[in-house]
Amino acid sequence: MSAIAIAGSRFIIVGGASLVGSATAAELLDAGAREVVLFDNFSLGSDAAIAHLKDHPRLRLVRGDVLRMPDLLDAMRGMDGALLLAAYMTLNMDRDAWGGLDVNIRGVQQALEAARATGVKKVVFASSNAVYGYGPGVKGDLVEETPFFSAGAPPAAILYGASKIIGEQLCRHYKRKHGLDYVVLRYSTVYGERQHYRAANALYIIETYDKVKRGERPQVFGDGSETKHFVYVGDLARANRMAFESAATDVAVNTSGPRPMTTLELVRMVTKLAGGGVEPDFVGEEPGKVRLTSGGAFRIAHEEAERVIGWKPQVEMEEGLARLIAWKEGNEGRGQ
Amino acid sequence: MSAIAIAGSRFIIVGGASLVGSATAAELLDAGAREVVLFDNFSLGSDAAIAHLKDHPRLRLVRGDVLRMPDLLDAMRGMDGALLLAAYMTLNMDRDAWGGLDVNIRGVQQALEAARATGVKKVVFASSNAVYGYGPGVKGDLVEETPFFSAGAPPAAILYGASKIIGEQLCRHYKRKHGLDYVVLRYSTVYGERQHYRAANALYIIETYDKVKRGERPQVFGDGSETKHFVYVGDLARANRMAFESAATDVAVNTSGPRPMTTLELVRMVTKLAGGGVEPDFVGEEPGKVRLTSGGAFRIAHEEAERVIGWKPQVEMEEGLARLIAWKEGNEGRGQ
Fold first, then answer.
1. Which among B149, B155, B176 has the least Cβ separation from residue A147?
2. Which 167-186 residues of chain B touch chain A by CB within 8 A?
3. How near does any CA of chain B get to the CA of A48, in Å?
4. In sequence order, what are the residues at sequence separation of 6 or more whose Cβ sits closer than 8 angstroms to the Cβ of residue A315?
5. Does the pLDDT at position B282 exceed 50?
6. Which CATH architecture fits B10-191+230-258+296-315?
7. Which residue intervals define the domain NAD-dependent epimerase/dehydratase in the entry (chains A, B) (predicted)?
8. What is the C-alpha to C-alpha distance for residues B105 and A41, in angstroms, rounded to an integer?
């Protein structure tokens, strides 16, 4: 039986001091979780991401490392569910491929092994739409069977996508070999309150907003027709909860926002929220940057997630961006 | 300058006590290499694979492990070229995913780092047509830009393919970050003298031959229309040599045999070589086995290899199988 009632259960969030980790912790605590453990080594995670939660009586913070098996074994003992978030994304993978492969592959191996050894009932693994890859092949509806396109993409982006493919398959492997139940959620690009500055696409929102606030014109690379398909962090927190609650196991589904948009639409939306009044500046390709986006128009289909765990996204981009910006404005005065 | 004249140069073959390793060592020695080092931990490699070479005056055997950085650094010092063969294939990946990811990912990281640190001029990395994946998506001409299909494939097969994708990208990463020249060769299924028993597809040749020799009917799974695209080991040894000799760098090409064939054609060919006289037994899907082959008809295109390193396959399957079987018959009496 792989369904976990949230109320009265204990959860560990590996890589918990993060955007998705803190939102999911709040979601699980609100649903009556007996305990939520945020496990993080704070190399990428931050105190700021969890400042609003850290005095919660049912939340426990554990400083630990996914590369240290004793840390994982100690922290997972007694847990009902484990959410595996700890990962390098592409920008960090480019800077430090060794560290990224360690965390994204060895870290997942160890977390799954620790979950198995300590009797965790269900794992939710945070995968990514990066498993569909990059470049002109990525177009139309991206469904769960879409292959991984990589021709011409930067090494770090392919390493990231392939590391997520491996993480997913390690989950399947542990299910087959050891019966460990799991759900893989393929997150699209996450944004929302407590946004960090490590993800190229989400960073673009913040950079655009800051430019407009300074009275500068925001930059659009290429002709602005490139697709972005974000998902609001609160929607993902709900998806994580529902993945634990549902009886589903041994399955991978996309969790994307209500709809994709073009870069130009996104920039216009952020410009409006920042006060408007400026037109975007269409520039060429950004030199020397790791490019992460596809040339084609695509949509990350999330219908399968509704069928499998009953989830669909609720927060439209306008609303989610407004929340992100309200949080950003509210926090800057506090020096975070 | 990434072209290496074989005559007078020194080469290390990591994972050298193997089918491809021993054939490539002979190829390089015949071309006048000053020294060839076979580096192997003998966990998968075997003395039998290199018995015919081991007294060669310009060959040196080093017992070492790709997971031990000091072993690699010691062995690579002074080498001009490094051929990276050490890998688990799918059957071993299924038995021991941890070991497989260690060797296929960490092992490649370490070998590349050791090559960089010791000033190796060029690396040839043995990748695989497994980077195109499995299942019904794999059809038609598989060219170097073909994506990775994995829906429905067994975890171990996907782990293997994804580990090869990562190995290739690590080569690209080391080229970009450190200028280390490399050529990736995507081998199709290798067969030939000194055939080992670890690769599912090549194993099928041996099993079929042995059945017919015992007077039994060879088994064909499904309707026999599944594609196989093998490459003869001597052709691959030549491809490895030519990859070192060519000025090509920062590129990945397919190295497959002259043409694909169906399983039924293969079985008829092996049956004939074994003395013939029996008809294949068409059975259903093989229960409980890791399935590695595609449902569709495909051809692994090798035209790019000719353009890039001047290589094309020379040995037709009939000829290569005859050599494999002559070797097998000649060796069984010697207890190898």
1. B149
2. 169-170, 172-173, 176
3. 33
4. A232, A234, A235, A257, A258, A323
5. yes
6. 3-Layer(aba) Sandwich (3.40)
7. 12-248
8. 24
